[in-house]
From TrEMBL:
Organism: Marseilla massiliensis
Protein name: tRNA (guanine-N(7)-)-methyltransferase
Keywords of this entry: Methyltransferase, S-adenosyl-L-methionine, Transferase, tRNA processing
Catalytic activity, reaction form: guanosine(46) in tRNA + S-adenosyl-L-methionine = N(7)-methylguanosine(46) in tRNA + S-adenosyl-L-homocysteine
Keyword S-adenosyl-L-methionine carried by entry: yes
Chain residues that bind S-adenosyl-L-methionine: E51, D76, N103, D125
GO MF, any single term: tRNA (guanine(46)-N7)-methyltransferase activity
Entry EC number(s): 2.1.1.33
EC top class, as a word: transferase
PROSITE patterns (alphabetical): SAM_MT_TRMB
Family that this chain belongs to: Belongs to the class I-like SAM-binding methyltransferase superfamily. TrmB family.
Domain of life: Bacteria
Alphabetized Gene3D superfamilies for the sequence: Vaccinia Virus protein VP39
Name of encoding gene: trmB
Record bears the keyword tRNA processing: yes
Amino acid sequence: MSKGKLQKFAEMETFSNVFQFPYSAMEGVTFEMRGRWREDYFHNQNPIVLELGCGKGEYTVGLAKLYPEVNFIGVDIKGARMHTGAKQALDEGLSNAAFLRTNIEIIDRFFAPGEVQEIWLTFSDPQMKNPRKRLSSTSFMERYRHFLADGGIIHLKTDSNFLFTYTTYMVERNRLPLLFRTEDLYHTDGIDPETRKILSIQTYYEAQWIDRGLNIRYMKFRLPHSGTLEEPDVEIPLDEYRSYKRTKRSGLSTSK
């Protein structure tokens, strides 16, 4: 581990807005603030919104600035990246922004039923080989149901045609209420001003992808608690590239 990363991890230990509970630290442990984020940390009764896979925390910080009456929590396992947003939130006095460093696979251990109102999935790894690891898979939807309010909103913003197509099929197969969908966010007319304001926030990598001429795709849908969720049984063309300038690792051209 580089000296810079070690310094960031050391600083994170002192940040009052960061909670670090990776999977290895949660074996047989109950998160004491589960169900009490509003009372014990935010000290208000405002809605809670999660950004899962928050990276540098651009959305968590940006949304917290736009909506001081809402509480935002960025979640990721990469502490060195998260350091950027956590430090900015502290420096700017954003009392409605917090960060949780943990594995998203155990996210339901940190929030009680109905404690969260919305979830943002911003440029998640498409996980083209493993459906169960996709943050918009039915496997994760079942986890989200444990703490997301009934009919709570899930936002997906991505550069990946594979992940966007897969999520579209997942929503259709399970008849989840689709609120909005566009395959080319920055060239779509008729987006209402409130949505446009939210979607104006750009992550570090998003700006790079836009410069490379890639379409940014966005959808939002509701997740009711009722009904059995089923995976879509369709073949989807793989992305011709991988995020962060990595090439495809498989010789396959499609996946489910």
